[in-house]
Design brief:
4-stranded mixed sheet; 7 strands
Length: about 190
């Protein structure tokens, strides 16, 4: 239980340090998406909605921009932030966010807080998670893990410019393959 709280607190600290990582209803927008591969030096504009930004100042946004080497970062009057970067930088950002999410998934398994969680699989865009368990029913703590998956999926999609209308989590009995519980961010807590 203490490690679960510590994990949740670590995610909260990450959101404080990287205020744009706050998860809330909303989506990132990339204007004029191109279906063909984008040249790595192409300029990309990525707007993160205010709901996903949290409380930040223009100075914090500028410091982050300088550290990452983005062309510009603008705190808009509505509280959203618009970044201008190259496609290569966007891909690097996506890889960085993916790595951090994968590390968080490994931490969930190794923390000891969820001893009945045996493995976790995520789809490519982190809108679907399969949590394999060694039980036929989940306890409160295990059910309480769903918002963590919602947050991780929301973070990835916000910083890659994708629209994640729903993050879905299946809890699957590893021995039988039966889905014993499911959760959807669009329903916030609905379960099977």
């Amino acid at each position: 239980m203490k490690r679960a709280i510590a994990l949740f607190m670590a995610l909260a600290v990450m959101m404080a340090l990287f205020p744009c990582w706050a998860f809330a209803e909303g989506k990132a927008e990339t204007p004029d998406p191109t279906p063909s591969p984008v040249p790595l030096d192409a300029e990309i504009t990525l707007t993160i909605p205010a709901k996903l930004i949290g409380d930040v100042t223009a100075e914090q946004i500028e410091t982050s921009r300088q550290e990452k080497g983005y062309k510009s970062a603008t705190l808009n009057s509505d509280g959203s932030v618009t970044y201008v970067m190259t496609e290569k930088q966007r891909q690097e950002l996506e890889a960085e966010v993916k790595k951090q999410i994968d590390e968080q998934l490994d931490e969930i398994l190794s923390s000891g807080d969820y001893p009945r969680f045996l493995s976790i699989e995520a789809n490519e865009d982190y809108t679907g998670f399969k949590v394999y368990v060694s039980t036929d029913s989940l306890n409160f703590m295990e059910l309480f893990s769903a918002p963590t998956f919602y947050m991780l999926g929301g973070l990835f999609n916000a910083y890659t410019g994708r629209d994640a209308e729903n993050i879905h989590v299946d809890y699957i009995n590893q021995e039988t393959g039966a889905v014993i519980n499911e959760a959807n961010s669009s329903k916030m807590g609905a379960s099977k």
